[in-house]
Amino acid sequence: MAKPNLHTVAAHAGVSIATVSKIVNGVRYGISEATLEKVLASVQELGYRPNRAGRGLRTLRRSIIGMAIVDPSPTFLADPFTTNLVAGLSNYLSEQGFGLLLHGIKPKHVDASFLVKENVVDGLCLMLSGSAQLRLQNTRLFSTLSHPMVVFQDHAAEGIPDACFVNQDDAGAARELARQVLARKPRTALIVIPDIFWPAIELRLEAFWQTLKPAGVATKIIRCDESNPMAIARAIEDAIERTGLPDVIIGANDKIAIVALHLLEERGARVPEDVAVTGFNAFASNDYAGLDLTTARSPAYEMGELGGKLLLERLEAGRFEKQEYTLPVRIVPGATV
Amino acid sequence: MAKPNLHTVAAHAGVSIATVSKIVNGVRYGISEATLEKVLASVQELGYRPNRAGRGLRTLRRSIIGMAIVDPSPTFLADPFTTNLVAGLSNYLSEQGFGLLLHGIKPKHVDASFLVKENVVDGLCLMLSGSAQLRLQNTRLFSTLSHPMVVFQDHAAEGIPDACFVNQDDAGAARELARQVLARKPRTALIVIPDIFWPAIELRLEAFWQTLKPAGVATKIIRCDESNPMAIARAIEDAIERTGLPDVIIGANDKIAIVALHLLEERGARVPEDVAVTGFNAFASNDYAGLDLTTARSPAYEMGELGGKLLLERLEAGRFEKQEYTLPVRIVPGATV
DNA sequence: CTGAAAGCGCTTACAG
DNA sequence: CTGAAAGCGCTTACAG
């Protein structure tokens, strides 16, 4: 049996499609009680559900927001930051009757995405990995689509109109963590970051560096494949072999810090007496490690909600009020510094 | 500047909209070389992107699949099982030019979801928590929408037409884990499961029980809020207080097993000599714990891909070929049994 | 090889 | 209070 449409319902109730349309859309003025009841009964009986393609065509609004996550990994949702952000965004949009079209895209294939090639959404949310240059290039590409955009974890750039940037205060929290570390008067520090470029990581790195350097701390930076705990451990081991045990190990995120803690335990180094350790972007999922890590808690879920809110307000108002928002990141004092 | 449509492009190229439509859709027969070039140039120059609402209305196909995750938690994406499944599904659909509309729904609010109230998608993927009765009720509700459905981690039921069920072999893997545990000749076992109802958990529980019971193992089952490591630890502590240290602790998933391992270490119990421990649904994200846990690796990503494939084949063929698929779950031998 | 025309399901300004 | 009609952007069978 074919799906009922406005005509089916109108015929069943003995009224015009215009009347059914009004009632289905909640218009109640200028509708007689009798008609209302008849139509509502028919809708119920036939199981009518409005086809969004029809409404979308008529109103040129589809009530769908696209979320493009540009990430080289197929498990682009693996990171709890992404997961929490998407959950916050999706829940907010759902409450407002909007759908979230989720799309993980490889950095090299952005132009092949149907979000780019076709006109499917009312607005776009973006989260991009890659070097600043590649990110800018991809952001420009998305911006040619003339959809309002909310970009997460990146900073405003020239020539990106109708966009709003939503960040967490990576630099501020990294500075604060570094300051706490400095209280231990370290002489050497090892900063461990992922080999994939993420803008937030670069910001943290910069803030760590700018705080430790002037204090005279000899700081070394190493990169590793953070999707693999073995690779993280090997990278840290290597660094220790070469330059000895540092006074501090700063993980660019909690995963890295957790691997560092296990490795230090194996080597019999005391934390924080011999080596202090910090993480970043704490999420509930890390609590299972049972480690009392000094770290910073990410407001990823709230960022998702805020991004959704800003995008829907933009759709309403015709423009973004502010170009950039930065959410505070709370330091989680632990036992590792 | 308004978005270009078929008319804009047709006017620019000096042809009819029918011709532009054909060319944009890749039709190449019966099109002269000159026309092809002219139109392609106009498309390029104007930055034309077909509006899916228009095509969708005409073809009654929207190339969008809905994924409904019925979960009481707002962070419905927190579990790595869900995350991997969604990534596999989303990637498969993207490759085929389909979009994934993601929607986390509270069990009590299913009928308020726009996936239910409106006609937005070509097909539906479902993942449901809750008691068997509540799940069946919600599955029935979704099935009244007459969309083809792929249901993950649940079993075929009466009165759900046009649906296909995709599972992992929870029972088989649980039986195998229990058998390995039995090799240690345990007399007592503690099974720890989440207090939220998930069908997969029930299946594992049943399989553990059916394997341990006939072997004469005194088996106790406790429930806990697995979203909170403290709550897990407290529940296990309580059980140990009451009935002493069991010979085996069986976690319904890896999170629970990891908390159990930390707790046993604190108590000075040796693993596996004093207490053997098993987990379930291992994912890369758990490797960071640095524990060599005996567990089972979930094919969640592959389940997502398979679900997407089955749904698109169903759209093509008009019906599902098989009603149920069960993917194997590989045991990961560790050092905790 | 090309285009005119019908129609997918819906909303809305307007006439009655 | 109700409905006829136009039109959103597109595809497709058909005529030329």
Explained architecture:
Two copies of one chain form a homodimer. With 337 residues, the first copy, chain A, is α/β, with parallel strands linked by helices. Chain A has three domains: 6-59, lambda repressor-like DNA-binding domains (434 Repressor (Amino-terminal Domain)); 64-168 and 300-327, 3-Layer(aba) Sandwich (Rossmann fold), CATH 3.40.50.2300; 170-297, 3-Layer(aba) Sandwich (Rossmann fold). Helices cover 43% and strands 18% of the residues of chain A. The first copy, chain A, has helices spanning 6-13, 17-24, 33-46, 52-59, 80-95, 114-117, 132-143, 170-182, 199-212, 229-243, 254-267, 300-317; strands at 64-70, 99-105, 123-128, 149-152, 163-168, 188-194, 218-224, 248-251, 276-278, 295-297, 324-327, 330-332. A six-stranded parallel sheet of chain A has the order 2-1-3-4-5-11, with helices on both faces. A four-stranded parallel sheet of chain A has the order 7-6-8-9, sandwiched between helices. A two-stranded antiparallel ribbon of chain A has the order 10-12. In chain A, strand 3, helix 7 (132-143) and strand 4 form a beta-alpha-beta unit. The N and C termini of chain A lie far apart (67 Å). In chain A, 50% of the residues are buried. The mean pLDDT of chain A is 93. Chains A and B meet through helix 4, helix 5, strand 2, helix 6 and helix 11 of A and helix 4, helix 5, strand 2, helix 6 and helix 11 of B. Strand 2 of chain A pairs antiparallel with strand 2 (99-105) of chain B. Chain A binds a DNA duplex (16 and 16 nucleotides) through residues 5-7, 15-19, 21-22, 25, 30-32, 35, 50-60, 119.
